[in-house]
Amino acid sequence: MTLAFRKPTSDHTAIQLLLRAAIGGTMIAHGVKHGRSIDGTARWFGTIGFKQPKLQAQASAVVEVGSGIAIVAGAGTPLACAAVVGTMTVAARSVHLPNGFFITSEGWEYVANLSVAAITLAAIGPGRFSLDRAFGLDSKFTASQQAGLAAGLGLSAAVAQLITFHRPAKCDD
Predict the structure, then answer these.
(1) What is the pLDDT of residues 131-150, one digit of tens each?
(2) What does the DSSP 8-state code read for residue 51?
(3) Tally of CA atoms within 13 A in the half-sphere of 41 that contains its CB
(4) Contact 88, 151 (CB under 8 A)
(5) 85 near 115, Cβ under 8 Å?
(6) Angle separating helix axes 77-91 and 53-73, nearest 10 degrees
(7) Which residues neighbour 113 within 8 Å (Cβ) at sequence distance 6 or greater?
């Protein structure tokens, strides 16, 4: 294992808690927002080209709240982070990429940063105050394996969802 990818030896508990709260809290809030208006969220999913928009709305609410709770608790951290990466990749591809970088123009700035933060959290692990640590799961894989799992599984799930459900309108240029 190279020096760049080994588990940190110093105590980063506060940083890990901060990342878990920021990423997990954001995902929970986003999922609750979707869940409070399934019909409105479904209409929106339909307008951006998703087949079975009600299913997409329900799935987004469940995945976002579920991954957020898991991240806050430090449970299954690489898998929960993969859900964030997948969700943000679908959002980037279906909404944000054509709009440039800045979120003020509906660009991909926000989704990219949340994805990178999730991969970073997977790499450094959930920390001392986590369910993963309590069950001895936080030391099963190297930092690079955990980051690779979060990125690879997240991107794969996003590609599968987009191939299966996303049918954007074609331009008549």
Answers:
(1) 999 999 988 999 999 999 99
(2) S
(3) 18
(4) no
(5) yes
(6) 140
(7) none
Task: Report CA-CA distances (Å) from 23 to 11, 16, 44, 107.
Answer: 20, 11, 24, 19
Q: Where are the alpha helices (DSSP H) in the chain?
A: 13-36, 38-47, 53-73, 77-91, 109-124, 131-134, 143-165
Of the candidates 55, 148, 54, 56, the residue with the CA atom closest to the CA atom of residue 95: 56
HSE-up (13 A, CA, CB side) for residue 101:
1
Question: Tokens 């976002």 map to which residue?
Answer: 64
Tell me the three state secondary structure of residue 9.
coil
* pLDDT tens-digit readout, 57-68: 999 999 999 999
Helices (H), 48-108: 53-73, 77-91
Write out the two tokens for 152. 């690879």
CA gap 17, 22 in Å, rounded? 9
Mean confidence (pLDDT) of the chain: 92
Type of residue at 142 = T
Question: pTM for this structure?
Answer: 0.90
| Distance from chain centroid for Cα 19 | 13
Q: Which two tokens stand for residue 106?
A: 């509906």
